[in-house]
Amino acid sequence: MIQENLLLTLALLPFVAALATTTLSAQAHGAAAWVSGLLLAAGLAILGILHGPIAAGQVLHSTIRWVPSLGLNLTFRIDAFVWLFVTLVLGIAILVLIYARYYLSKNDPVPRFYAFLMLFTGAMMGMLLSGNILMLVVFWELTSILSFLLIGYWHQGQAARDGARMALIVTGLGGLCLLVAMLLLGKIVGSYDLDRVLDSGDLVRNHPLYPAVLTLFLLGCFTKSAQMPFHFWLPGAMAAPTPVSAFLHSATMVKAGVFLLVRFSPVLGQTEMWFFAVTGTGMATLLLGALIALFRHDLKGLLAYSTISHLGLITALAGIGSSGAILAAIFHIVNHAIFKASLFMAAGIIDHETGTRDMRRLSGLMRFMPVTGSLAIVASASMAGVPLLNGFLSKEMFFAEAADWHNGTWLDNSLPWIATLAGVFAVAYSLRFIATVFFGPPPVDLPHQPHEPPAWMRRPVEALVLLCLIVGMLPGLTLGPTLNQAAQAILGPDLPYKNIAIWHGVNLPLIMSLVALAGGVALYALFGTRIAAGPEGPPLMHHFRAQKLFERLILLLTWKWPRSLYQFIGTERLQPQLRLVVLVALTVATVTLWGVLHPAAEALSTPLNPAFAAMWLVGGSCAVGAAWMAKYHRFAALVLLGGAGAVTCLTFAWLSAPDLAVTQLLVEIVTTALLLLGLRWLPKRREEIAEDKLRPARVRRARDLLLALIAGVGLATLAFVMMTYPLVPSVGDWFLRNAYKEGGGTNVVNVILVDFRAFDTFGEITVLAVVAVTVYALLRRFRPDPESLALPEPQDAVAQKSLAETLLVPAVIMRWMFPVLLVLAAYLFFRGHDLPGGGFSAGVTLSIAFLLQYLAHDVRWVEARLTVLPIRWIGIGLLISGLTGVGAFVLGYPFLTAHAQYVELPLVGQVPAATALLFDTGVFALVVGATVLMLIAIAHQSLRMARLRERDAPQPEKEAA
Amino acid sequence: MTPAMLLWLALTYAQIALAAAGCLATVRMIIGPRAQDRVLALDGLYITTMLLFVVTGMRLGTPFLFEAALVIAVAGFVATVSLAKFLLRGEVIE
Fold it and tell me: What is the pTM of this model?
């Protein structure tokens, strides 16, 4: 139990650190580093406690049930391999924190950097500790997103933004592939539990989907670990602050890919397909990465390509998959993390103290920073694989695997040669780094005078280099047992213990190492000056940059092709869009319903009522008339629309939906006013449009008419058939039976809205709020057509009488109607739960009351007396509804569970008081806010135009006066 | 003639008469000729609808249609007023 809790705490610590650092002030570098560092150190302490059982071969688990129905649990799991990896991550994270404390300038915002860095650490650890493969993918994607944020930390720079975006696109796409691979794996194995998956190697390898799983899985790993041809994002990522680069390139991010490769090699490996794909890619990356690194002039660029090359080495080892290879892979993961972190930090120090990273400008720095120089020399010697350093040991083990392990394929036979050649390049670029930067004549013309960095900025480098030396000289005493335990955790407990020693006698791997060393030195001695003078890239290959290709591809995919596609099939005109929408709806409906829709055998019908029939005639002719008038007589069309609306409401009432009738009537009234407000800003009608008489226009109109007729008749038929079907038991019956019992209301519509389906309503009012705010935002930037700017015609005609004069009597009546409408709104609101009404209709009524005041007087008059703050109404409404829902949580019920009872009020008597009423209050407030916001937003246009007119033309008005 | 029969006759007559009024108002609404005519016709149609709500409620014997009539009575004129103001001033809200 204690161990389980410790494991959970371990996984949570970085997130706690992230939370803590976000609360710090923007300059608190020291505090942020201390808080994060101490929390991570606590993580290391937990790892120390857990070491005992894990070293004994135990696998610790800790599970939190999350979505059990999907087989998705938050399972954390730690074995010796994960233990080693997490220790590595935490250790380097602490060193990076110390380094960053001195690296970042005073102006870099603290909380953002440390919070991102801690979140990233947390995501990486979550990925490592995941005991569920879906959870693993989630953390995997989190590392992609957070690395995007970290690389783009200095988002003022173009390079940082581009690099961050490229990293996100490449690793994010890889993550998607990995997700699909994991889903397939889960289907094949029948469980998403990592232990089950790791035990099902044979099942997976013999499954017909194995090639698909393998391809997708490898795409995920290769993109993350920057394998060719996806390597290009990693050099782009050096735009990040150096501490981030050091962290990303050493223990995290790129190591996630090789972690997964090694972890899953018992499941997906041991096939020829795996060997060729993984070892082939790894060897290609190893060789090309080393080659390109030799030709980079940028310090961090050299190191980035060196990282790519070393990742290729680890990948190749994972592809070989023998016990020795896995051991070597784990060893090299650790060694590379140690020397690469120190090298990046050293490069950062050089950049920090001299102001440049260009190796052609740097020279002879040993004179100015002897300590840093010595540290960097040791670290790069380790990178080159010089004996007595840790890099040498794992490289030697790699050479041994390349030379000794055989499966008889051509790739296997060429492994030693490629390995040695890559070794030559590795030695050459390490030598170039050291020789150009630290030796030679003193530098000239540097941005800063170089000097040693603050002592604490160097401490992390010192610690890492010390590790290089200790591990390099005493491998069997230091890392040997841990590495063997880790390899056993991957390949099974039966694995024989393999001793890691420096001296194996004169054998093939040692000869390969010596050849590489000698070849590298010779290569640099012969071509060093020419490389420095040449372009940034190997001969011929520097014309061919994957980064550029990627940019072009992205440009093509996100800009050129969509644009040409848009030009080909898109249109900005409303008519073709509407035509397409109707056509698509028509097609879909026809295809779905063809042959399925039959009229009911015994059609329901109501007896003919002449009055009703006549009113339908009225409604129909109004609707047709509105369509007819819409082109040239917008105002008449609007009036006719009002008529059609009134008849619709009548129909609702007739067909026993009085509730709907009330709501629809209120909406009709507000809509008329809204449309009129908009009508003022539409451009004036042109008397004659010549093309309108021409043949194409006529044909087009005839076609549209036909389309409209077909769609209209189809919809009417559909409605008719559905409504004449005999009643069948449906969910509606349940609502009718249970509305009072469960919801405490007799108005079933309202009970459904605020109780049974309250969550839907909550979503809908949220949408309404969003729409209202959007309308408001759009209208703030609204600039009407110049021709509708002038005062409207009729206003001029009424002899410049003021509004108050024109509407004296009506204005008084309209003012008096305000309290009446308030009472009506309250009436509709309070009886809503039992009788027709409800929050929505009450809200619309109240907004009509406000609208009326705006109609009776001008905007200034109203706003001097009555302040409506629509945005607050909206916010408070949403808050009330949401809190009512949350209130159910507090009492232990699901979200939005309503409670109904009656309370006794003095004077009034028994009043129904469902919590749904409270929810309805929220709806009410929101509807008022949204409607008034839209009305006012449009109304204020007139005010603004009036102001503009006053400002632009003061003379004529004076003359008129 | 029983009272019930009488009531039925009266209500049916009232309904048909109101529907006829609605039809006539619609004719005016469609042919115009002036915009003012149309607005007035719409107001007439609204009043007719309100009365139809009341009469229908009586015929069906339900009190639930009363709210709809109430809403038209109290707020229905807002649509007419805004249309009228648009004609009069060219702007609904100034």
Answer: 0.67
